[in-house]
Amino acid sequence: MNDEVYIQRCIELGGKASGNTYPNPMVGSVIVHEGKIIGEGYHHKAGEPHAEINAINSVKNKNLIPESTIYVSLEPCAHYGKTPPCALKIVELGFKKVVIGAMDSHDKVNGKGKKIIQNAGIEVVSGVLEKECLDLNKRFFTYHQKKRPYIVLKWAESADRYMDKDFKPTQISNTLTKQFVHQLRSNEHSILIGTMTAMRDNPSLTTREISGRSPIRILIDIDLKVPQHYNIFNNDAETLVFNSIKNDEEGNVKFIKTSRKNFIENMLKTLHERQIQSVIVEGGGLVLQQFIDAGLWDEAIVIKNNNLVLENGTKAPKFENEASEIQDFRDNVIEFHFRKN
What we know:
single chain, 5-stranded mixed sheet, elongated
């Protein structure tokens, strides 16, 4: 039972770096000596020390380590990257026991870290709160296992299921749901819109409402119709423009030529190659429907204003899926849908 308590704390710690660790997973670690936490740490950013190292560095009395258990939400790494393998450091310091939440299916790890530790004669327990630990890094695992980013669909609709009034920008969400959306953007790696949304709404797709990183912006603009002075091309964030005309690079804007045939699949393949682990698809309706029809989504977030009737405009996507969770945000509700694979 205590193992679960400490792994839960590892999950909480790992989640503190949400949106900041790409392309690495979020990981938390706790060091316990005789029932007392003597060290904690989490992975803050790619290229910086891993969770286990930060936890070890936080221990004031290092003499206690050989009689301590180290808990980690994800299997310690076994390869040399920008930092040395954590599994070797654990062996070097001679921990009494290691408790792992979930094993790392990434090819460079995949049981190797656990094996190194066991071969050194250290007791290892794995699979504690495994589902919760895997869920913390569902983007990381989707990226490596399905060879594409984790896909979050997001849109707002009125009571009569329109996304705007008379095909013009229309405020459907309130200030609370707007802040929620900006936090969502900060947590995800990238955000995607199509030509119509860019032309009609001229969005910046940044995190203006909160303090947080802005995602990489992705624009599907097949015929390059969006004018270069529009907000999506400003210097606030990197922008990738998928089109059928040119490959080019202009400052923070990269034009990527892609075949019109199997466009979505080709684009996702390119995003995978660029190590983009998650994408929010914000629309419009046609782009969202393409992802839905292709079964290419993992999560959907639908903001509903049940007091607003628009009567005419862009129809919300046809989406036959039961919400897993519904939350109230004053006069808005947010439906959370999770794809069952």
